[in-house]
Amino acid sequence: MAGRSTPLTTARGRGRPRDPQTDAAILRAALELFIERGVEGTSIEQIAKRAGVGKLTVYRRWSGKEELIAQAVEQTVPADLVPSPEDVETMTPHEIIERILPAAAETTASPEFRALTARMMGSAVSHPSLMAAYWKHHILPRRDLAMAMLRHAQQNGTVSPDADPDVLIDMMAGAVTWRVLQPDPPDAAEMLRYIKAVYHQIGLYHPTKAP
Amino acid sequence: MAGRSTPLTTARGRGRPRDPQTDAAILRAALELFIERGVEGTSIEQIAKRAGVGKLTVYRRWSGKEELIAQAVEQTVPADLVPSPEDVETMTPHEIIERILPAAAETTASPEFRALTARMMGSAVSHPSLMAAYWKHHILPRRDLAMAMLRHAQQNGTVSPDADPDVLIDMMAGAVTWRVLQPDPPDAAEMLRYIKAVYHQIGLYHPTKAP
Predict the structure, then answer these.
(1) pLDDT in tens for each of the 211 residues of chain A?
(2) Who among B163, B168, B170 is closest to A178 (CB)?
(3) Hey, which of A63, A132, A163, B55 has its CA 20 to 30 A from A55?
């Protein structure tokens, strides 16, 4: 979880100290309602009510429900699942993947990840503002890291130099997304094997090779 | 029951001749309502009303809304997008892909495909019976054909023999699915380039090679 506010001050607030417990309650309420009802069935009013705060308390912190839900979804991504820019510069793709694999398998096999994935994909056309907010604030920064890993691998020769990194990232993310929405969803052990196979096909991971 | 058809009844009917125009109207109504409201917001009653028929007329033909919506979605897939089992036996994967590429690019770049993809993915967790029906009746038969193409390519050496075909199929289908749900969706020309890149990465298609 990425709740990094300090106890007394606020980096992003609009003039009042932020209470981390209030923020956490609002984010949790937003996540629950999004899973239960989707973005179209969720309002700031309902989120405030479930969190036990006033509507203005929510509006003071987030400009709209799309930004709020996007941040709530992002907070479900464990910190050890995303490499730092320094990791990407100093470690090989294989080493980075080896380190994030357990968290990646656990996370993507969880019922919460499945439900959030379905809701996010499901709203992409009927309610595109949520995907736009999530894409801009959360997906693009992670794609930049993946892009850097792929460029290293293209320099090292494990990934074809003429491959389009955007297509490769979609193949990796898209496979996992599609797999967890199929009937008979995988458990964490199956996801571990599955994600290794995906990375291996791209050329980022070599199961039989020592790191 | 099914063996007792007379000249006046149909093979699958429950005692009355089927009118192809009625079937088409019901399938079109089911598709429109699914796009507008999702599976949870669509009922047999609403479908019947929009198609201008009675509820019983629908129930006589389909056992439930999931089966009906699954068939309605399937009917949007152009016939020239799916190779026949004979094609798969007699043509190389490269030749098959070369032939289906224009239809694949047109279809996947269409607003209808985007909307249906979002709705289908979106209902996978909250309402899994639709995905289960679509998977069983429509996706699995197509996956079998893709599986046969991949086995040929593994024998020919363009696809790694140790790759898991299920993972490769998910990478291809997942990439396209994820791409069309991103902000700034692609047009048909961009999808043509994109799908070529996906098949090339898997080893089924070689843009620089003559077929």
Answers:
(1) 444 443 444 445 455 567 889 999 999 999 999 999 999 999 999 999 999 999 999 999 999 999 999 999 999 999 889 999 999 999 999 999 999 999 999 999 999 999 999 999 999 999 999 999 999 999 999 999 999 999 999 999 999 999 999 999 999 999 999 999 999 999 999 999 999 999 999 999 998 644 4
(2) B170
(3) A132
Domain A20-74 CATH class label: mainly alpha
Q: Which residues of A touch B159 (CB under 8 A)?
A: none
Q: Which residues of B touch A (CB under 8 A)?
A: 38, 111, 114-115, 117-119, 121-126, 128, 131-132, 135-136, 160, 163-164, 167-168, 170-179, 181-183, 194, 197-198, 201-202
Residues of A with CB under 8 A from a CB of B: 38, 111, 114-115, 117-119, 121-126, 128, 131-132, 135-136, 160, 163-164, 167-168, 170-179, 181-183, 194, 197-198, 201-202
One-letter amino acid at A170 equals: D
For residue A131, what are the contacts with CB-CB under 8 A and spacing of at least 6?
Answer: A120, A123, A124, B181, B182, B183
ipTM given for this complex = 0.90
Q: Measured between CB atoms, which of A115, A160, A174 is closest to B171? A: A174
Euclidean distance between CA atoms B91 and B166, whole angstroms: 21
Q: Which chain B residue has the Cα nearest residue A39?
A: B122
Q: Spelled out in words, what is the top-level CATH class assigned to the domain B79-202?
A: mainly alpha
Task: Please answer whether residues A20 and A5 qualify as being in contact, where contact means their C-beta atoms are separated by less than 8 angstroms.
Answer: yes
By 3-state DSSP, what share of chain A in percent is helix, strand and coil, each rounded to 5?
65, 0, 35
CATH number assigned to the domain covering B15-74: 1.10.10.60
C-alpha to C-alpha distance for B101 and A35, rounded to whole angstroms:
37
Tokens of A6: 């300090």
Collapsing DSSP to helix, strand or coil, B22 comes out as helix
